[in-house]
Structures are given as C-alpha cells and as structure tokens.
C-alpha cells in the first residue's frame, strides 16, 4: 500500500473529508493489504508457532512510570507551544479557509517549516490563495512562500511583518543517532480543534521507501501535517507527513536533515509570488530520472507461472502481493500479482511519480482454444486506459503492435498522456499479453507516472524484454 498523506484539512465539494489522502485518490489499482500474505496476530504471552521459547513478559508499567511519561509530554508541550503555528490557506477574494496544516518556527527572523502539500496552493495558485500563520495564543500574521522540496514534501515560509524575534525550535544534531524504541513526540493542530502533543516511538526508517522516512509508532491526524516531531530534549528530529489508513499508530516523518537543508536554501531566497510550475517540473524531472536509473540498474526478478517467466521488481524497490486460484473462474487457473514502488510525490492537489506492475497468468486446459481466446481477449479489453483528459493531463495517445523481444511473442499497447502544466512529463501505461499458446497466457501491465518521454521508452523496453517462455524439457 502507498503511504497516505496526512492532508491538511480541506473543504471538499460534497463534505468535509477528515482524512483525505492524495495517494489513495490516485491508487485505485494498488493492492489492498488484505491481499498480502501476513502472519496472523498472536495473543500476548502465547508460544511462537515454531515452539521456540519466549522471554518473560516485561513488568506492567507502574503509576510512577505513567506519571513520568505524562510529565515528559507536558514538559515538551510547554517547551514547544510558543514555537508552533497553524498554517491556513485562504481564498483571496472570500477570505475563507481552503486548507489547514501545522508548522514551526526555525529562525528568529520568522522562517517556518511545514509540508509542501500544506503550502502547495501558495506555490501553484498564488493569485487565488494567500497564507497566514496562527499561534497558540491566537496571534495571526501573513506568510510568504520562500522554497519547497517536492520530493521530500517540505516547504519553508516566512512570517511577514514580525517586529519581535520568533521563538525557535532547534534541530537535533545529525551525529546523534536515534535509538530503536526511543520516545519521540509529535506536535500539531489535529482536526483544527487545538494544538496537541502525541507520544510515540522511533522505529527506524521505513523499508523500501524511495526517499527516507521515519517510522513513527504514534498517531497523526489531519491538520498535523508539517508539525514537528521532537525528542526528549525538545529538539526537532522529523516533520509530520503521513500515516497508514489501514493500520493503527503507523505514521511517518520526514527526517530533520532535509528540513535543515531546505531552510538553508530558503534563508536568502526571494518570495514566490508567481505560479511555480516550472520549479516543480524541474524537481519532478530530477525525481523521475533517479527513479528510472534505479529501475534500469536493478535487474528484474523472474516470477514463474508454468512455462512463463514474468518480470517483477527487485525486492528493494517495490512491494508485491499475489493471489492464487480464483474460485469465481471455474475451469481456469488464474494467478495474480501486483507490485508498487513507494515513489509517489505530491504535485499540488494530485500525486505523481508512482510505478505499478501487475500480472494475470491464465491456464485453462479444459476450455478449448476458442473459449479461451474469447475470455482472454475480454480480459485485455477490460483493462482501463486513460482515454479521457482532465485538467491535469491530456487524453492518452496509444500505439499497438506485436513484438518478439526474444523467446516470447507479445501483443503490446503503449499509451502516453502529457501533463498540461508540467512540460515534458507524461503518464505511461504499457499493456502486454502473450500470444504463443492456445489455452495459456499472461497479461502484464506497467504504469509509470510523471516520466520523461525518453525514460518512459527505456522503461517500456526494459519491461518487455524481461518476459520469457521456457518450454518444458
């Protein structure tokens, strides 16, 4: 599953969405974690399945322990409260709120760190939106956008017109590594109901994350986007960014080092007053180049389906899920695989940068060639392709041809859809079926978002060449 963002509270056309995830809105084809093969939970104190001995359970927390933790949270709250702000994006004409997130002061002259997805309307539609910050005491002031990092989902604002030095949250030194299980505290304004502190634990970096993310064992809620996560000394170690919608206390932070780098870049920057699509495009071009290089340098792993060999990404690049025989298709052995790289990035009110692969392998020896061909063709026709444009991208243009990259003849369709305001970037879909057996076949699909044309063609070729047929000896 993708890692949904803790979106700033934003008014939707139908109702107020409490937890709106930009990734989820564009990941209809992503596999649900319900399909993943995961071990069943084991009751506390039970023996492991393999019969190995368990260590004794830790003693239950005492009242003194609970009081100490409570005092720590109160101390962190008091240390941080005057450095925290709420970031509001307002419609210029009406003055009504369009979105709400969190942020924190990092310099005496009023620099504020938050998420890019909190400030994206200021970057892309400054003629329609303006930003303000609000302190815990209700003090309000205008903000201006100085810099943003699309890849890491960060932005730096400046509080305008401050006459007094801003109170500052310091960063934890990079050479002080966090320990597994170390207690950390996330701060922000959840659901626009008031500033809050959430206790949790550091659980290392997320595995297979395209950009480094901290696995925070605590709760984040909408409106906390861009708020700081701090250690016991009140030093910033990360920035709130996302949570899993299908789990409990599985949340994510951007490591502080990236916020520090952006603050340094923003210190002498001029305010962004015009739509910054060109700068966002530049950063997305860098993103897709790194993404392409990683996929081209890491050989595909082969997944076996009878005599077919289909390509799946290296385990370090993507998560894959599979399912076996589908009982709703009697007389047909149908196996499915879905893979997705955690490479999505925010591009305003939509996401891009995702890479997805999926397969369906068919074996129907009892159907006969004619019935199989009809069913197989229908499966190919059922694949949804982006034939209609929208305000972000054009309608797709598709090319179909038969190719034989080696041991397996294939029917391939390649579709490209151009981004309207991100010049030179496309969404690409490659749909492929084998055509070598009367009652067997594989159907594969590769979707890459926000890729340059040349890199898209390289990825398509890399993908098609990885299909093989290995006849039984």
List keywords for this structure.
single chain, about 475 residues, alpha+beta, seven-stranded antiparallel sheet, six-stranded antiparallel barrel, 7 helices, about 35% strand, elongated
Written description of the protein model:
The structure is a single chain. It contains seven helices and 26 strands. With 473 residues, the chain is α+β, with helices and mostly antiparallel strands. About 11% of the residues have low confidence. It has a seven-stranded antiparallel β-sheet with strand order 17-18-21-25-24-23-22, sandwiched between helices. A six-stranded antiparallel beta barrel has the order 3-4-5-8-7-6.
Topology (elements, then pairings):
Elements lengths: L8 E3 L4 E2 L4 H4 L37 H18 L3 E8 L5 E9 L5 E4 L1 H9 L4 E7 L4 E10 L4 E6 L23 E6 L7 E10 L8 E4 L10 E3 L5 E8 L7 E5 H11 L10 H21 L3 E5 L2 E5 L6 E5 L9 E9 L3 E2 L4 E2 L2 E9 L5 H13 L15 E7 L6 E9 L6 E10 L5 E13 H12 L3 E2 L4
Antiparallel strand pairs: 1-2, 1-4, 3-4, 3-6, 4-5, 5-8, 6-7, 7-8, 9-10, 9-12, 10-11, 11-14, 12-13, 13-14, 15-16, 16-26, 17-18, 18-21, 19-20, 21-25, 22-23, 23-24, 24-25
Helix pairs in contact: 5-7
